[in-house]
């Protein structure tokens, strides 16, 4: 059976992809970072399964900033498929740690591709790069396709731009089976809690349970094309099953504002909101008139990506990929999971 190596296996996407590959019969190797505390919560269920862990799932310490580590891992594992999902993935944080973001998200991709060449895996290993709709930034076309010119708006976007082009370059220069998935925002109950969707659904659950008064957010008018993460990791696998490598947009072709995400989330916990005011003075009130959503300009970004909406026609045509979970269903899934979580936390605290 094929052998896969996943970087970023402890992240949202890595955890879903690992489950899916194991279910398909793969042997899965994951790179994890040394941390001062446990960072494997999202794969704990796999880790604790004696029929899986150290049988078909193996974890290795590593870091995308360490070339010799990458060489050793590739030599030892000899993977057929590599999914490079590891990244400093937070756009706002990238303004605070721009150099580190470039090291990991930009040069880290180069290190990996070069290691594949260095250890002679060019013919054996197929490579997936976690590219992003942040490449489109200040969008030059609506909706965005594989042909839309890029205009990144953050150190994260610029670092990922390097990652994108170095993948294309190694494919064209050395014949590597290397592909870019240009994924639009995708979310789930496993999403990190500092990304806006999860921040909102966590707050909605806790506010509903009386554990929190309100949530403070940044730009409520930003529009995103939000999909359901497990469907997007399935698309990653489909890309590597193609005879020829390529670059694909992965999106729902529907866009919604952060404000709409709030409205759906609070409605899902039976607390419908009404928004009033503008800019920094905008608030979302519940039916009793209590402010539940506020704006805090600290969450604004030095440069913002205002609108993203992707056209996944190429993926539909060539990979047979089509998202099924709608925006309303996605919010329901996340809000329900986080309401349940808040109820559990409340019980534990009692
Ligand atoms: P995530 O939850 O933030 O996970 C990122 C993963 O990368 C974590 O496992 C993290 O390890 C690991 N990592 C960070 N820095 C590393 C380093 N220097 N060396 C090795 N590992 C490192 O991100 P995600 O949402 O699953 O996204 C997966 C990938 O897709 C990322 O590359 C992201 O930029 C890209 N992407 C995401 C979206 C989206 O909407 N989710 C859209 C487009 C592209 P720790 O657990 O130890 O922190
Ligand atoms: O949830 P976000 O932080 O995601 P963002 O910046 O779109 O990036 C995510 O998606 C990218 C794909 O396009 C990935 F490449 C990237 O790795 C990451 O997964 O913010 C979404 C929008 C932004 O416009 C932001 O300004 O929500 C706005 N926002 C408003 N208030 C907020 C907040 N974002 C965050 N994180 N926190 C807020 O309080």
TrEMBL record:
Cofactor requirements of the protein: NADP(+)
Record's keyword terms, sorted: Lyase, NADP
Binding of NADP(+), residues: 214
Domain NAD(P)-binding: 5-334
GO molecular function, one term: NADP+ binding
SUPFAM superfamilies in alphabetical order: NAD(P)-binding Rossmann-fold domains
Catalysed reactions listed for this entry: GDP-alpha-D-mannose = GDP-4-dehydro-alpha-D-rhamnose + H2O
Transmembrane annotation, as ranges: none
EC number of the protein: 4.2.1.47
UniProt-listed GO biological process terms: 'de novo' GDP-L-fucose biosynthetic process
UniProt keyword Transit peptide, yes or no: no
Principal EC category: lyase
Job description of the protein: Catalyzes the conversion of GDP-D-mannose to GDP-4-dehydro-6-deoxy-D-mannose.
UniProt record similarity statement: Belongs to the NAD(P)-dependent epimerase/dehydratase family. GDP-mannose 4,6-dehydratase subfamily.
Listed name of the protein: GDP-mannose 4,6-dehydratase
Organism: Prosthecobacter dejongeii
């Amino acid at each position: 059976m094929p052998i896969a190596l996943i970087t970023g296996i402890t992240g949202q996407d890595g955890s879903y992809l690992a489950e899916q590959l194991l279910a398909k019969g793969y042997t899965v190797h994951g790179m994890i970072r040394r941390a001062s505390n446990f960072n494997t919560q999202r794969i704990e269920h796999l880790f604790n399964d004696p029929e899986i862990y150290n049988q078909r799932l193996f974890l290795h310490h590593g870091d995308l900033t360490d070339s010799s580590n990458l060489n050793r891992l590739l030599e030892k594992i000899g993977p057929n498929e590599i999914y490079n999902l590891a990244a400093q993935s937070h756009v706002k944080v990238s303004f605070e740690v721009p150099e580190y973001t470039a090291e990991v998200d930009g040069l880290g991709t180069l290190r990996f591709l070069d290691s594949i060449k260095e250890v002679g895996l060019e013919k054996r290993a197929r490579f997936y790069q976690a590219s992003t709709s942040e490449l489109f930034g200040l969008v030059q076309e609506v909706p965005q396709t594989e042909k839309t010119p890029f205009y990144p708006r953050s150190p994260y976007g610029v670092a990922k731009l390097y990652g994108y082009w170095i993948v294309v370059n190694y494919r064209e220069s050395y014949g590597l089976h290397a592909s870019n998935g240009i994924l639009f925002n995708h979310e789930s109950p496993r999403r990190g809690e500092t990304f806006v969707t999860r921040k909102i659904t966590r707050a909605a659950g806790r506010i509903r349970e009386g554990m929190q008064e309100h949530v403070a957010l940044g730009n409520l008018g930003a529009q995103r094309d939000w999909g359901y993460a497990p469907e997007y990791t399935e698309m990653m696998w489909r890309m590597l099953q193609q005879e020829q490598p390529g670059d694909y947009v992965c999106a729902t072709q529907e866009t919604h504002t952060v404000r709409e995400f709030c409205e759906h989330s609070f409605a899902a916990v039976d607390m419908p909101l009404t928004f009033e005011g503008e800019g920094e003075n905008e608030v979302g009130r519940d039916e009793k008139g209590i402010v539940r959503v506020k704006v805090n300009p600290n969450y604004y970004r030095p440069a913002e990506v205002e609108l993203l909406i992707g056209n996944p026609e190429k993926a539909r045509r060539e990979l047979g990929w089509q998202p099924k979970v709608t925006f309303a269903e996605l919010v329901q899934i996340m809000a329900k999971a986080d309401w349940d979580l808040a109820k559990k936390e409340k019980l534990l605290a009692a």
